[in-house]
Structure formats: structure tokens, C-alpha cells
Write a structure and sequence with these properties.
Elements (H helix, E strand, L loop, with lengths): L1 H24 L2 H17 L8 H24 L22 H9 L3 H7 L4 H12 L4 H8 L3 H18 L7 H16 L3 H7 E10 L11 E2 L1 H12 L6 E8 L2 E8 L2 E11 L2 E8 L12
Parallel strand pairs: 1-6
Antiparallel strand pairs: 1-2, 3-4, 4-5, 5-6
Helix pairs in contact: 1-2, 1-3, 2-3, 6-8, 7-8, 9-10, 10-11
Length: 294
């Protein structure tokens, strides 16, 4: 019965643990590994001494994620081409009833914000995630990280400054984003260069992530004209049997292409004032495996 109770308590908190770990790491597989290790720690702990299981589990998960982040950051230095977070299937409508709270929670899981957070140190990122996404007080974050509250406030200020310097602007209205995503797909599939140019901001960028395991640009493509011409060129060489669907990934509408029933490509857009500012393309098969059932 004790084992069943331990499992029940852990499963109750698993969603928030995964949410913390993913925002820390930007990889679904790494987040799942961290949550599994947290379960091992939880199952072996003297739970009679744990008064607040959620606080205990968040502390363990955050510390494990910091250690894992230090390891993966070293590996990313040798990554082939641009690195993007692994797309995550989300359902932000059920996150919080309050619109403002939902918007903040969603912002911290977007492609653009996760890319910006890559510039933070592991400790800065932990403080930023716990404070901005989950609203933890500084005192509780200090306990999680085993640091003084003054040190945590300094980390928070430094993290916020770095994020503000690179903070992306994007359309938070899900209906507008989905509509523009559908128009974007239609223009690209129809090899409509003028239509794409009307949708793209003048300084639009295209960022592709293949990890060297699929075809994708190894450098960021910049300017509306170059991005549009690249997309039209790709559309002019269609893959027979490719199927497209639109779903919610990382808090916003995204295109998912399946080939032979296997996820092949994810395309997601940053939208500002009705124009596409960034096109994210993820083709690394390792980062698409979690979407196999989508």
C-alpha cells in the first residue's frame, strides 16, 4: 500500500515536474529522463519526513535538471547547424483559467523563448523558470537551489536582463496564429512567392534544425525574399505521400508533416502584427519521435 500511495502522489505531480524539466532542458527525452530519476529518488526516500511532496519533488527535479543541462550544453557545442528545442505537444487552454496567467505560462514554452533561455546559465535558467513560469516566491526558490534569497534575487535580475535583451515579440492570439499558419501553408504549398512575401515581415528569418540527420539549412536564412524563395524551392520538390496537419505545439499552432506515418518535419511561426517574423523548421528525427502519435 505504501508503494501504491507513493506512486499515486508522484503521478499527481508528474505534469508539473515534466513542465519544469522541459523548460529547463528544451528536450522531451531529457525531461522524461529527469522525471524518471526524480521518481527513483522519491521511491527510495524516507517519505515520512516529507511534509510537502510537491515542493520536495520540484526541488529534486530542478536540481537534476540543472545537472543534466550542464551535460547537454557541452554536447550542443558540437551540434551540426542551428539548435532548436524539441517540439512539445501542449494544451494551454487547460493550464489556467486566468488569461494573463496562461499567457505567461505559454510564453515560457514557446520556441522563441526557449531559444533565448539557452543564453542563461543553468542556475539562472532554473530561477527564471521557477519564478516566471510557475510564480514561485524567491524564498522558495532559494530553498530549491540551496542558495540564499539575496543570491537568488541577483540570479533572477541577471536572467531577466538577458531575456529582455533577446525577448522575442510574438502573436499571443491563438486564432490569429492558426489562421496565418493555414495561409502560410497554402502559399508555400502553392509555390506562391508573392503570397509568401505578403505574409513575411521584411526582416523575416528561417531557422532550420536537422542535427545533420536530414536536409535543412545549416545557417539561418535572413530577409523575406530569401526565406520566401527557399520555401518555394522546397515546395517545388514535393515528397509524394507527405501529409500535413495543424496542431498545438509549444503553446501555438504548428504544421506537422508525416511521411509514411512517421513525423518528418515541424514548422512553427513567430507572428508579430500579422506578419511572420521567424520560421522554425525542425527535421532532426530524434526531436520528432515524441510526436509519433500526434
Amino acid at each position: 500500500m505504501l508503494t501504491d500511495l507513493a506512486t499515486e502522489v508522484f503521478e499527481e505531480h508528474r505534469p508539473v515536474l515534466h513542465a519544469v524539466a522541459y523548460r529547463m532542458l528544451g528536450r522531451v527525452a531529457d525531461a522524461e529522463d529527469v522525471v524518471q530519476e526524480a521518481w527513483v529518488r522519491w521511491s527510495a526516500a524516507d517519505r515520512s519526513e516529507v511534509r510537502e511532496p510537491r515542493a520536495y519533488l520540484v526541488r529534486v527535479t530542478t536540481r537534476l535538471a540543472i545537472d543534466r543541462l550542464r551535460q547537454v550544453q557541452a554536447r550542443r557545442e558540437s551540434y551540426v547547424g542551428p539548435w532548436l528545442p524539441e517540439p512539445l505537444a501542449t494544451d494551454t487552454a487547460g493550464v489556467a483559467p486566468d488569461t494573463a496567467e496562461r499567457a505567461v505560462f505559454t510564453e515560457t514554452v514557446t520556441m522563441a523563448m526557449l531559444v533565448v533561455m539557452e543564453a542563461l546559465s543553468p542556475l539562472e535558467r532554473a530561477v527564471f523558470v521557477l519564478r516566471e513560469a510557475f510564480g514561485y516566491p524567491y524564498g522558495e526558490i532559494a530553498t530549491v537551489l540551496d542558495r540564499g534569497e539575496a543570491a537568488v534575487r541577483q540570479l533572477a535580475a541577471r536572467a531577466r536582463r538577458h531575456v529582455e535583451e533577446g525577448r522575442p515579440r510574438f502573436e499571443v492570439n491563438p486564432e490569429r496564429q492558426r489562421e496565418l499558419t493555414e495561409r502560410f501553408l497554402a502559399a508555400a504549398a502553392g509555390e506562391d512567392l508573392k503570397g509568401l512575401l505578403r505574409l513575411l515581415a521584411t526582416d523575416a528569418r528561417l531557422v532550420g534544425d536537422s542535427g545533420g540527420k536530414a536536409k535543412a539549412p545549416l545557417r539561418i536564412i535572413r530577409s523575406a525574399d530569401k526565406v520566401a524563395r527557399f520555401l518555394v524551392g522546397v515546395a517545388g520538390r514535393p515528397t509524394p505521400g507527405m501529409e500535413f496537419s495543424i496542431l498545438e505545439l509549444n503553446g501555438g499552432a504548428a504544421l506537422l508533416a508525416h511521411y509514411g506515418g512517421v513525423p518528418d518535419t515541424v514548422i512553427q511561426l513567430d507572428v508579430v502584427d500579422g506578419r511572420v517574423t521567424t520560421v522554425y523548421i525542425v527535421r532532426n528525427p530524434d526531436k520528432l519521435a515524441s510526436l509519433a502519435k500526434s
